[in-house]
Amino acid sequence: MDKLSKAVVVSMAVMLIIILAAGGKITIGTKAPADNRPTEPPMDPPIEESASYHVGIVTKDNHEDEIQGAKALVAQYGSVDKGGIIKHVISYEGFAGDLEFDIMQITGLANDPLMKAVIVSPGTPGTATAFQRIREAGRDDMLFMAVLPYYYDPNLILAADVIIDTDVAVRGFYDILRAKNMGATTFVFMSFQRHMDIEILSRRRNIYEEACKDLALEFVFETVPDPAMADLGATAAQQQVYDMMPDLVEKYGEDTVFFTTNTALLEPVIKRVVELGAMFSNQEDMSPVYGYPTALELDLSAEIGDWPAIVSKIEEAVVAKGMSGRMGTWPYSFNYCNTIGLAQLAMNMIEGKGTGNVQNDIIATYQALTPGCEWMAQVCEDPDSGQKISNYYLLSMDTYIFGQGYSGVFSEPVPEKYYRIK
């Protein structure tokens, strides 16, 4: 979600390419670490010599998780040019001069008469226009799906059949409940003005603060350097945060969960949490490869494409440092799962395998992708009017606590008031 400085973008991209270079079946159990080994994935279905329909996947050039999800789909269902189901095209971020190319990449898929669904991840500007143009051309036989609409884009909400986004209210409450269950007494929210000017981040910050009041934790906002604004870029911001952490741990105590809205700052935060014995529950961006590999100096090249193995290796390092039960992560890349999950949902709908309840079908599809990891899906409600947006679904997945297993917080209902906090 965050735009990093050029140096960090390059380093993160290299890391992600190494870690996520191959898509595979992903399974993690729910038991304690000793029994929490991946199960054998089911065999992939055979690829038909000539598919009866096609599904288009559009990913952006700098979104590695989504690209790897598309590659996993091609590996499982075959590419259109070889008689399979999946057509994967890569577009640009979709801003400024690249907007028309972005639109062209999406609309071009509709030239295939067998194309029955198009999934765009993420749904940046241009996606809504492309969907509208395809509909205007008479392709009413196609499904249109998108992930993470750009800042609650009303045009995309109107143009798409299914939209997937993160659930701000649910995550805001459950992150604090997880912290409490881990034994935390304080939750430190580390951010800066540029992020607080983004509605979704400022809203979650307010939800965190309210949840801390309700669950008897101290909420603290700490201003940290913005890597995009720092004089020497992300490296300088990382060093400053690294230097800040000892004073913060001394001030608030070891039983403090530290959370940052910035991806580049995860490395110094996690590194210091381990060194100082504090707490860390999960990352801003939903993926286990953010922060941990660099902070713990882990070589994950042997675990390419194997999400359970990635999490297991991180867990082994965390537990070895005496941090069992005090650190957690998202066990899968949210965006990787979205690419595969929406494609599978679309195929089920095309083949008439869905139940007719999209919300339930989304949950079933995502949980089938990630056995043992619990998901929630809710229809989005406008926080102002309370009106439901029937094609807009908000998703959450459970956090994995190293040395313990999944947090299991979804058994506790989210109080209604959190959906109204702005």
Describe what you observe in this structure.
This protein is α/β, with parallel strands linked by helices. 39% of the residues lie in helices and 17% in strands. Strand 12 and strand 13 form a beta hairpin. It is globular.
Q: Could you name the key traits of this structure?
A:
3-stranded parallel β-sheet; 7-stranded mixed β-sheet; alpha/beta; 14 helices; single chain; disordered N terminus; 422 residues; globular; Rossmann fold
Write the layout of secondary structure elements.
Layout: H1 6-20, E1 54-60, H2 64-77, E2 86-91, H3 99-107, E3 115-121, H4 127-136, E4 143-147, H5 154-159, E5 162-166, H6 168-181, E6 186-191, H7 193-196, H8 199-214, E7 218-223, H9 234-252, E8 256-260, H10 266-276, H11 292-295, H12 307-320, E9 328-329, H13 334-350, H14 358-369, E10 375-381, E11 388-397, E12 400-401, E13 405-406
Helix pairs in contact: 2-13, 3-4, 6-8, 9-10, 13-14
Radius of gyration: 21 Å
CATH class categorisation of the domain at 169-329: Alpha Beta
By DSSP (H or I, 4+ residues per run), the number of helices equals 14
> For the largest beta sheet, what order do the strands appear in spatially?
2-1-3-4-5-11-10
Q: By helix and strand content, what is the structural category?
A: alpha/beta
**What distance separates the N and C termini?**
20 Å
CATH topology (fold) name of the domain at 169-329: Rossmann fold
List unreliable stretches of 5+ residues: 1-44
Assign an overall shape: globular
What's the architecture of the domain at 169-329 in CATH terms?
A: 3-Layer(aba) Sandwich
Portion in strands:
15-25%
Please describe the biggest sheet, giving its number of strands, its sense, and whether it closes into a barrel.
7 strands, mixed
Order of helices and strands: HEHEHEHEHEHEHHEHEHHHEHHEEEE
Number-wise, the strands total 13
pLDDT averaged residue by residue: 87
Q: Helical percent range?
A: 25-40%
